[in-house]
Amino acid sequence: MRPADMLRLLLLAAIWGASFLFMRIVAPVIGSMPTAFFRASIAMLGLLAILLLMRVKWDFQGKLGLCLVLGIINAGIPSAMYSMAALVLPAGYSAIINATTPMMGVLIGALFFAEAMTMSRAAGVALGLFGVAVLTRSGPAELDTGLLLGALACLLATACYGVAGFLTRRWIAGRLDNRLTAFGSLLGASLFLLPLFAGSLTLSAPASWGGWLEWASLLGLGLGCTAFAYVLYFRLLNDIGPIKASTTTFLIPIFGVLWGALLLGEPLSWAHLYGGVLIAIALWLVVRPTKSLAA
User: Fold this and answer.
1) For the chain, where are the alpha helices, taking DSSP H only?
2) pLDDT digits (tens, 9 = 90+) for 14-35
3) pLDDT at 173
4) Distance between CA atoms of residues 125 and 180, nearest Å
């Protein structure tokens, strides 16, 4: 891997790790549904501007509807879940649990998409879930109902990512420009979150819409951690391929915990290390190529 590619990989992990920091700043102030809606809509508008500057040909090949549905699964529901988790979970917790995404993909594939479940992958899934349990039970945050619900919300988001990965491969992959798929997904997420946002305002409007810090964080979340990150990720896909690009999953928790500790003063504990190492080993078991795949 070239040094420039390695730097882009680290930058992408740092940006995505910061998304949990931004949600932790914004969600407790303006609420979970407003945070999720503004993240998706700002990202959608930002990506629209990027695509217009790049002069991308707007040809969805009749698959706009599928992109909208994928957006609900891949962006709408996860954004809502992570924003809800940000009300109770430290940013480092959410970032570490987010690393279970490949394991959820393996589990979803075996249960619903007739994917082979090898012993290595089964062990990885079990070890990854054990790592989440170690983190939530032994971490610096007090174990209570809110903490458990926040962790479950993060796991539901990763399960959505797993489902979306298989549906994307079945419906879209190889047939549509990835940048258009990303825009259609963000549009679908924004449309899905709009009534939830309106409903939350009707039931319980935020006491405050925050100040410059919260809105700067929202802009960073939408434009930096979503719209710009998509463009950077697609560049990595083209330059180093999907397998090497997916290794950013190993790096995101490091930056998520780091940003939370440095900028939010979140306490560190050995549970971060224990849980993170267990999940990292689980990821290796899940993503490592088998002999048959290598052949």
Assistant:
1) 3-30, 32-54, 64-71, 77-85, 91-98, 101-112, 119-138, 145-171, 178-203, 212-219, 229-245, 248-264, 270-287, 291-294
2) 998 899 999 999 999 999 999 9
3) 65
4) 32
Q: What is the pLDDT of residue 244?
A: 66
8 Å CB contact between 226 and 83:
no
The pLDDT score that the predictor gives to residue 294 is 43
In angstroms, the CA 233 to CA 98 distance is 17
Residues 6+ apart with CB under 8 A from 177: 56, 57, 59
Please check whether residue 217 is in contact with residue 19, taking contact to mean a CB–CB distance below 8 angstroms.
no
The predicted pLDDT at position 251 comes to 78
With the C-alpha atoms ordered 238, 59, 48, 33, is the resulting torsion angle positive or negative?
negative
- Coil, strand or helix: which one is 252? helix
CB within 8 Å of 20: residues ≥ 6 apart: 82, 86, 91, 92, 94, 95, 98, 256, 259, 260
Residue 238 has pLDDT above 90, yes or no: no
Pairwise CA distance, residues 221 & 38, whole Å:
9
Can you read off the two tokens belonging to residue 81? Answer: 């879940």
The secondary structure of 175-196, three-state, reads CCCHHHHHHHHHHHHHHHHHHH
DSSP state of 88: T
Indicate the domain borders of the chain.
3-287
